[in-house]
Amino acid sequence: MTHLLDIKDLNKADLEQLFKRADEIQTETKALRLNRLAGKQAVCLFYENSTRTLLSFQLAASGLGATVFHLPVSHSSVQKGESFHDTIKTIVAMAPDALIMRHPEDHAHQQIVDLLPNNVHLINAGDGQNQHPTQSLLDLYTIRQHKTNFQDLKVTIIGDIKHSRVANSLIDALTTLKTTNIVLYGPDNLMPKQYADKKADNINTALDQADVVVMLRIQKERFDKNEFLNINQWHQQYGLDADKLKLANKDAIVMHPGPSNRGIEISAEVADGPQSVILEQVANGVLLRQAVLYQFLS
Ligand code: NCD
Fold first, then answer.
1. Alpha-carbon distance 51 to 43, whole Å?
2. Beta bridge partners of 199
3. Which residue's CA is the closest to the ligand 1 atom numbered 12?
4. Between the CA of residue 172 and those of 37, 226, 254, what are the distances in Å?
């Protein structure tokens, strides 16, 4: 495989290979790690804001000995009217080994894939509401550190499902690993039709005996002009607090891709509580992105 655009392109064996690669990288010495991608060059091109994904790709690449360059879109020729395609052709002409891109449009990566030669690997760092493959890898890897198998898990995802590429990628990846008990909950207008069979009737049934609870931010920046949301009652209706979390299994883990809004989708007590693995997800983000870069670039 040349590019990583959609988590559905990876089968169970591919996912397991990446997890094993991450295990391996984690246990080796810094000196060994720095040799893995020595001499390689990666470019990060992010058309949307990012803290975790951008920084973890940069740390991942440099931690493997690659040199990584971040082109800040707000300071680039995009601001002088250069088209998306011309920007990509310009970057490709400089022959980096990897182009790590985030874009607000669904399937933006598919639009440019034909502009890339086989030795420039395109890695999707999030496209619109569609996919966020490396997020699902780090999510799965975090689950795998706490749970023994994927098949018997109840995974509950709560919040703004409609605008969430995190939810799409995680549902796809869990499905590849044969998790059948995936339950979604959120307001009806933020529940995509394709997931109607996974929707819980209320938050109590959604959380009841869950093994993994994933909370999502209201992704206001992805709302259409005619989409309206009153967030006053959000925490009460769709937010996770310590009382509601008691409905889940005692050893349930609480996840959030970040950035989180405390007091809205998650209480501070839960975000900082013993069941929260939010910072483990962040740490695993660097590791899984290293596994991906090594797999595609070496
Ligand atoms: C997510 C994203 O960008 O889709 N964040 C992330 O990559 N960690 C989720 C979000 O923005 O809410």
1. 16
2. 184
3. 217
4. 29, 29, 19
Are 15 and 141 in contact by the 8 Å Cβ rule? The answer is no
For helices 12-27 and 165-176, angle between their N-to-C axes, nearest 10 degrees? 100
Map out the domains of the chain with their CATH numbers.
7-131+283-297 (3.40.50.1370), 133-277 (3.40.50.1370)
Which ligand 1 atom is at minimum distance from the Cα of 135? 7
Centre of ligand 1 to C-alpha 133, Å, is 11
Share of the chain above pLDDT 90, in %: 94
Segment 82-128, tens digit of pLDDT: 999 999 999 999 999 999 999 999 999 999 999 999 999 999 999 99
pLDDT tens digit string along 120-168? Answer: 999 999 999 999 999 999 999 999 999 999 999 999 999 999 999 999 9
Element at 166 (helix H, strand E): helix 165-176
Nearest CA to ligand 1 atom 7: 53
